[in-house]
Amino acid sequence: MKPLLTHLDNRLPQNCSTAIADLEKEWPVSHQFNYIHARWLVGCLFNWPLFFERCYASLEEGGWMEVLDIGFPCQSSDGSLFPNSAISKWNDLLVKAAKISGRELTVAAKFGEFMREAGFKSVTIIEKRLPQNPWPEDAKERALGEIALPIHQDGHERLGHDYLIPNMGMSIEEVDIKLEVVKKEMEDPNIHAWWPM
């Protein structure tokens, strides 16, 4: 198969090639893989069971699949993320808008079930918490929060525009005004919020 992203070819190992394809259409590969890694696809797919079925069918015997994704909504263990906070309301709005579009933002909690139904054996779920910002006292978690904050802010801007404008009838200006308050709350170290991973 000829690589489609030739500008990446010099950074890929010799035994790798790239292809651009819609995961929910026919896959442009005829061979099987020994490893499939999927990451940050929540909000992208309509049919998760079909995706896992295709992944299973595309693995050679003894092959592995690894999935890393984010869960919704954002949470806190100490009650510092209030139900009436801008972040909580924003998450509720995104989940509702995604459902209208035919996608599900809370789907990561079902990955294990979907994988087993597709035929995967020895499914292991490892749950982690990704801090919203650098609020944790632990140095490693604080560093993760520093890295995660701009990613969360940028990601929610994209989600807001992609979901709220077409599905909730909101204007760009309305979304951006709400998002400004959400981003400010995301930066607040007194809100000990985290995302399920």
User: Can you give the mean pLDDT?
Assistant: 91
Name the strands of the widest sheet in spatial order: 3-5-4
Beta-strand fraction estimate: 5-15%
Question: CA-to-CA gap between the ends?
Answer: 34 Å
* Unreliable runs: 1-7
Shape: globular
The residue fraction in helices comes out at 40-55%
Largest sheet entry? 3 strands, antiparallel
The whole-angstrom Rg is 19 Å
Tell me briefly what this model is:
By secondary structure, the protein is of the alpha+beta class. It is about 40% helix and about 15% strand.
Fold topology:
Layout: E1 33-39, H1 48-57, E2 59-68, E3 75-76, H2 86-101, H3 111-118, E4 129-131, H4 139-168, H5 172-187, E5 193-196
Parallel strand pairs: 1-2
Antiparallel strand pairs: 3-5, 4-5
Helix pairs in contact: 1-3, 2-4, 4-5
List keywords for this structure.
197 residues, alpha+beta, 3-stranded antiparallel beta sheet, two-stranded parallel ribbon, 5 strands
What does this structure look like?
The chain has 197 residues and is of the alpha+beta class. It has helices spanning 48-57, 86-101, 111-118, 139-168, 172-187, and strands at 33-39, 59-68, 75-76, 129-131, 193-196. Helix 1 packs across helix 3 (111-118) and helix 2 packs across helix 4 (139-168). The longest helix is centred in the last third of the chain and has 30 residues, at 139-168. The protein is globular.
